[in-house]
Amino acid sequence: MDVLSKVAHKNKLKVLYHEKPFKGVNGSGKHCNWSMSTDSGDNLLDPTVKPETNYRFLLILVAVLHAVQNHGGLLRTSIASASNEHRLGAHEAPPSVVSVFLGEHLSEFEFRAVGSKQSPAFPVTVLNAAVASALRDVSEALRTQMAGKPFATDSDKLAVIKKFIGSTKAVRFEGDGYSEAWLQEAERRGLPNIKSCPEAFAQLLDPAHANMMTKLHIFSQSELTSRFLIMNERYAKDLLVEANTMRTLLAQQILPATFEYRGFLANSASLLKGIAGEEESPELATLKALTPLVKELQGTITALDESIAELHQIHDDPVAEANAAANHILPAMRAARSAADRLETLTADKYYPIPRYSELLWF
After folding, report:
1. What pTM value is reported for the model?
2. Mean per-residue pLDDT for 306-312?
3. S-S: 117 plus which of 17, 23, 223, 339, CB 3.0-4.6 Å?
4. Coiled-coil region(s) at which residues (predicted)?
5. If we measure between CA atoms, which residue out of 260, 333, 268, 255 comes closest to residue 295?
6. Do the beta carbons of residue 102 and residue 172 sit within 8 Å?
7. What CATH code would you report for 233-361?
């Protein structure tokens, strides 16, 4: 990221680290490649030429599957942010359901949902913790299967592998993870589909996840609570900044531009009616199409103002503030965006004060 910034600055450009800078266009994210090795450098996720008899590989593999099965919700928490929320589940971005695609070849796992401007440190911490907990479960199952024997036999290992292959069936998916059908299938399998950030943040304090983190001495309960509150506060503040920026842009640039263009159309239609006797001129037709959208935009700005005011009233409660941002600020911004987008296609270029989508993306 540092190199990108320096090269961009050198060439008088700017890097857009936002995960979804343009609606309707593929977003941006990090692919977090993860694997484990021994102290001598052996990759524990290398299946070798005979994976069917590489029991160490198979035991590690089912442990990772078990980790995602048990703590997929916490992995979803680790990549939750106001900007990444726009990206997940849309336009070839990873879905909000965390699953595992094994494929035909394996040497590492790739956590593809990390945001483009996010440090991978917290997602990797969560993944490491989940796998550590899963390895403990696999080890305990293997000891139980050994029934006091000094060494695990191949039969013991295969029995444990078989057990965890069966218990992790729900989290394994080899199909199209971007499809609506997968979301329905995930629901049928009982996998969590956590769509909003406040929902994701709550997973941090879920007893199943919190107990795992505290037992491994990665976070204390107070540290988890602190992180939970900070994540909610950061999310609400990010959306509040975006909402205020949008409100300023709409009220001070877009709306005045449409007023001016409406005035031009009204004058033109009036002149044409007086001079040429045109009752239904193209100018009048455009004015009639424009006017409802201008009123709609004005209404969405009012709704946005109300949502912003609501957040200011509850700023002392980060959780309530984050939920209000998700439930009120985001819908208000989407409604305002919809009206502004339609006005962009109708307002003459001479009057439109900012670059259009077509100018930003294609010219």
Report:
1. 0.89
2. 95
3. 17
4. none
5. 255
6. yes
7. 1.20.120.1560
List pLDDT tens digits, range 16-66: 888 888 887 778 888 889 999 999 999 999 988 888 899 999 999 999 999
Cα Rg of the chain, angstroms: 27
* Separation of alpha carbons 307 and 301, rounded Å: 10
d(CA 123, CA 101): 18
pLDDT at 178: 75
359 pLDDT more than 60? yes
Asked whether residue 93 carries a pLDDT value surpassing 70, the answer given is no
The two three-digit tokens of residue 265, written as one number: 């159309």
Residue type, 123: P
Residue type, 342: R
Cβ neighbours of 218 (radius 10 Å): 16
Domain segments of the chain: what residues? 2-219, 233-361
CA separation for the pair 350, 103 (Å, rounded) = 53
Asked if residues 305 and 299 have their Cβ atoms less than 8 Å apart, the reply is: no
The separation between CA 331 and the C-alpha centre of its own chain, rounded to angstroms, equals: 16
Question: b/e per residue, 74-104, with b = 16+ CB within 10 A?
Answer: bbbbbbbbbbbbbbbbbeebbbbbbbbeeee
Nearest to 304, CA basis, from 220, 244, 238: 244
Max Cα distance, the chain (Å): 104
